[in-house]
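FOLDING PROBLEM:
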Amino acid sequence: MSLPIEAYLAPLQQLLVQHPNVILQAEPGAGKTTVVPLALLQAPWLAGQRIVMLEPRRLAARSVAVYMASCLGEEPGQTVGYRTRMDSKVSKQTRLEVVTEGVLTRMLQDDPALEAYGLVIFDEFHERSLQADLALALCLDVQANLRDELKLLLMSATLDSDVLSRMLGQAPVLNCPGRQFPVTVNYRPCEPRQRWDVLVSVIMQALQQHAGSQLVFLPGSGEIRRVEEMLRQQSLPAEVLIAPLYGDLDRQQQLQAITAPAPGRRKIVLATNIAETSLTIEGVNVVIDSGQARQARFDADSGMSRLQLRQISQASARQRAGRAGRLQAGVCYRLWAEAEQARMLEFDDAEIKSADMLPLVLELAQWGVRDLNQLRWLDVPSAGSVEQARTLARQLELLDEQGQLTELGRQAAKLGVHPRLAHMMLRASQLGLGEAACELAAMLGERPLLGNQEADLWEHFQALQAAKRGKSRQDAGLVQRIVRQAGQWQRQLAGSGGQIREASQLGLLLALAYPDRVAMLRSPGSGRYRLSNGRGAALVAHHPLATHPFLAVAELGSDAAEPVIRLAAPLLEADLRQQFAAQIEQFDQVGWDRASGAVVAQRQWRLGELLLQKQELTPDTAQRQQGLLQGIRQQGLDCLPWDDGSRQLCARLQLLREWLPEQGWPDCSAQALLDTLEGWLLPYLDRMNRLTHLSQLNLRDILLARLDWNQQQQLEALAPTHFVVPTGSRIAIDYSVQPPVLAVRLQELFGYDQHPSIAQGRLPLTLHLLSPAMRPAQVTQNLPGFWRDSYQLVKKDLKGRYPKHSWPDDPLQAVAIRGTKKQSGNLP
């Protein structure tokens, strides 16, 4: 039976002749992954060069290569080969290489022009991993600057093709239908806590209602093991085989899952999203979808990329359902409500939006790129995240201050492992601890050997050693993966040294990977630590690790007010000082100590934000002055010895600045005074170093010293402290309120027909007219108007209460008085 893609091979060939970049959007079942690469091998424009095809997953890469080789009647490694991180089948005669993501990046770094290759195919590009985005950006750079004849073909069933086409310079899009049989979709919503019980129930129901095999999508290997155990407790038909399928299974188990069952048998394939694309699992006509997946995302708690549980996108749901209709009509059961389908993301987020940027930074440095805009990106990496990663890379001594790879950085790049772990293994090799570092690196890349409840990494490491000697019943597959990966790195680090015997040695290795997570105990018995990156963290109550003054932390949990240390090892201060001597900074710090209310000077030795040692110093005059200013700014201006005179003066000066701006009066607002402490206060602090010493200051004289000679002469005239009323009394003006207030007995203003003002008459004072008992009788800013309009009413009230005082009918013709009629000579 022919595949739909075969009818589109000729148009595809023509597009590749005419354009450097082409997008092939082919629906599931079209046959693009296996048919297109073989067909293009004979293209005249390829001129005998090789094709490299990026396949995101290792299992798919091997399976696709094996299938295409079989189509040629060959074994993999002849015309068609593959390369993955831990497996390779290629030879000199290989012309089509199927590779995984990291491998393609390494090929580009080792041979930037890709001289032997005429076409790079990006299969299943919709998955948008960080490495795929990077590899595409590098290939476009090769096209632009080294080889304009290099062709790029991007393939997927679900792509935002319009956006991708624009990014690729208006690349043409070829759409191909798939060979898809009808798939009936059923929704079975369930509560999260019931998910696996419901899923097992659906599996058992589907076994009764449908012939053929089932493909069950689960988030990860843990859920696969759990569901497998639950199924084995059911009464499964004798012909049903349970077949797990995930990346870390050995090849024989994976092959058992993807090949057709024996006649008369059928399978329940429990798979991760490894089976979502590129693989055709024979005999499957029922898909059961949990709606979840674990996707690589940068985990700030561990400082590395981790698999995180997420809801799948609509595109993934379509891909999964399509697995049931590849060879015949099928059915798909989804463990969510139909209404929820429309609320799911249309496509998965690109990993580059949330990934750890440290590996990317090193790849770019090796490529010779410092400015992100030098490359073309579908989604430009966050500049802030990239800069943070560069800072860490310099701390790990992988980049120099100019952003160039150091010799250690070049060695790390060759290891093909996360830069943190590469740095640890390389430095450990120099210390004769390379074997242990390789095992630790492999452990950190897996789930904890003893589960998540044990925070002491030394316990996990000892469990690994016991399992290697056959003295512990740990997860055999997990131990095997750790040992196999560690062995591969040990071979790369030939002569890397031996094992460790103390927990503190493990802590040192861990600190080499996580220098930003060296932790120092805040106080004995507290279990609370400060990290070298400035964050705080704590151990669970009474944990044995809490007795150690220093820890190296591998993983933090952020599910509490203060992050919890989930995985760590003890660290000796002597080892810390020796191995991190270049990063320990010595500097003198003079500043304000809030607790003592004084200026203190110290010589400090710090590793990041950790204060390892301090020595008291005697500050000089300038340091004391600056320290006091720092203290005043922290405490606020109220810590200065303000009295009524100095506050009134400050208010008078600020008033003149507002009402007579042309005269250049100084700014005496609180913010301005704080901002200019150096200019007006610092000269008076030369013999002080404590807040209590500030009481010696005369703020009124200090503020007056800010005025030039002319201003000092004009101050009393423009903003006087007192106003002389007709009786001769000098009444103080209150500048603490705006406008300023003159509070005076009403009788002392008899005969006065003007309103008092200041600032060259621009600002009328607010008059508080008082009764003989000094209680407010009237407030006005228009004294003549008061005499004319309001006096008679006020007089009537006051005359009744104060009959011994003079209350003339015409106040403007009366003589101002201070007391009663008798005291004033029996005036009427």
About this structure: The two ends are 129 Å apart (CA to CA). The CA atoms of residues 315 and 347 lie 5 Å apart. The chain has a mean pLDDT of 89.
